[in-house]
Amino acid sequence: MCRYFSPYSDHRRANPPTRRGVEGWEIKDPHPLSPVDFFIPGVSVVGGFSICSSPRLLEQERMIELAVKYTNHPPALWIHNQCTLDSEVAMRVGGEFFFDPQPADASRNLVLIAGGVGINPLLSILRHAADLHRERANKGHGYEIGTIRLFYSAKNTSELLFKKNILDLVNEFPEKIACSLHVTKQTTQISADLKPYITEGRITEKEIRCHISKETLFYICGPPPMTDFFSKELESNHIPKEHIYFEKWW
Fold first, then answer.
1. Could you give phi then psi for residue 195, rounded to 5 degrees?
2. What is the CATH number of domain 109-248?
3. Where is this region: Disordered (predicted)?
4. For 38-51, what is the mean pLDDT?
5. Which of 22, 82, 141, 226 is 20 to 30 A (C-alpha) from 193?
């Protein structure tokens, strides 16, 4: 079970597993992918969640979106079972796992590799990249984003979180954003709208090698074995360590 709320209404929905609504929280310039430490009054355990929204949402609406999976972890339980529209918490935003290009920076291609709920912070990059591209198209200046390729693996299509959001961006910017969605234990028929993007089986090193270049940055987020495998694979293909970013959460 997952819930969603906005600070301006009591609207709730079951999918995606997102908490939205931070009006009044002073979060200065959160980078896309920034992890969040979540401090809940009365809960001794600190939560660690991901910002999955673009910084533009905070700038324009004073909101961020956090993706929180329902688990027995005390902060996640509190969010799903006790958090209400007027609940107050404290947050700390930081870390080194982010993408924050400046207008004069060289254009970079991005390869995003996600496993399971590791998609959450990488969705922030997709949304931020889309905002950067819109800004440059509308104003004629700003950072020029390169191409973005997302590789995203889950057990089945029902566990491919945010798939509609991802495909909306792919369809809006087909010349910039592409995705390859992988399922490893699919037992039901794949819907017609998803079929063009679905590959059955794990993400392979061969697929990633096709996108290696000196202009490309790699972001990896998923289970530790997956993260270790791809980071070592990229290093063995002479990708500089400063071009490889990864985050392990479990």
1. -50, -40
2. 3.40.50.80
3. 1-22
4. 92
5. 226
